[in-house]
Amino acid sequence: MKRILELGGLIAGVVLIVFGVAVIALGVQGRGTVSDKLKAEQIVGTPDMSPSAIKGEADAAGVTGVKLPTCTVANLAVTNGTRAKCFADYMRIHALEATGGKTYAQMPHYATADGKGTNDAKAALMSNGRPVDNAARNVWVTETALATALDVSFMASQLALFSIVVGIALLLTGIGFIILDNAALRRKV
User: Fold this and answer.
1) What is the pLDDT along the chain (189 residues), one digit of tens a residue?
2) What kind and span of H or E run contains 127?
3) CA-based Rg of the chain, rounded to a whole angstrom?
4) Is the separation of the CB atoms in 70 and 55 below 8 Å?
5) Is-contact 131 125, C-beta < 8 A?
6) Beta bridge pairs of residue 118
7) Run of H or E including 2
8) Which of 72, 85, 116, 181 has the fewest C-beta atoms lying within 10 Å of its C-beta?
9) Closest by Cα among 114, 113, 115, 120 to 102
10) SS (HEC) of 79-116
11) Which residues are paired to 110 by β-bridges?
C-alpha cells in the first residue's frame, strides 16, 4: 500500500507537468491565433486615435459626458488584443461624433424631412410606401458589430494569457509533487 501511495505522488506530479505543458502550449497558440487573425485584417489606427487628438474631435462634435480612451493606436497596426480593444474604444467615440452624441437607443427609428427623425412610422419619410429608416442608426449597427469582434479578440487574448498562467501553476505544482514525493521516499530509506 505504501508503494502505491509513493508511486501515486510521482504519477500525480508527472500528470500535472504534462497538463501544465499542454495548457501553456494551448495558451501560446491562442495568443498567436488572435495576433495572426488581427494582422490578416490589416487594421491601422487613424491619426486621431490618441487621447489628445480624440478630445479635440469630441469637443468639436459636441460629444460630452463620455469617457474618452486613454490608450493610443494612432498610426499603429492592430496586431494584438490590447490594441484591438483600444481601437474599439475609439470606434465608439467616432460613432458618437457621427450621430451627434446619441447612441442607437437614443435615436429615433425613422428619418424625417427636417432631419430630426421620429419613432412614428406615419410621420416618417416614405419610400415605396414604407417608412425610411434613420441612416444614422446604421452607424451604430456597424460600430457595434466591428467593436464586438475587436473586444472578443481582446477577451480571447486575455483568456489565452490566463491559460498560460494556469499552465505554469500546474507545471510548478507537478514539480512540487515530485520533489515532495522524492523527499518522502529518501526519508524512509
Assistant:
1) 677 777 888 899 999 999 999 999 999 999 999 999 999 999 999 999 999 999 999 999 999 899 999 999 999 999 999 999 999 999 999 999 999 899 999 999 999 999 889 999 999 999 999 999 998 898 999 999 999 999 999 999 999 999 999 999 999 999 999 998 888 776 655
2) strand 126-127
3) 27
4) no
5) yes
6) 110
7) helix 2-41
8) 116
9) 115
10) CCHHHHHHHHHHHHHHHHHHCCCCCHHHCCCECCCCCC
11) 118, 133
CA nearest neighbour of 92 among 118, 110, 119, 71: 71
119, three cell numbers: 419613432
Q: Kindly state the cell numbers that stand for 167.
A: 499552465
* C-alpha torsion angle, residues 38, 42, 46, 51 (rounded to 10): 20
Residue 31 amino acid letter = R
- End-to-end CA separation in angstroms for the chain: 16
How many Cβ atoms from other residues are within 10 Å of residue 120's Cβ?
Answer: 12
Phi-psi region of 134 (alpha: psi -120 to 50; beta: other; left: phi over 0): beta
The neighbour count for residue 58, using CB atoms within 10 Å, is: 19
The H or E element spanning position 158 is helix 135-188
d(CA 43, CA 144): 16
Residues whose CB falls within 8 Å of the CB of residue 28, separated by 6 or more in sequence, listed in order: 160, 164
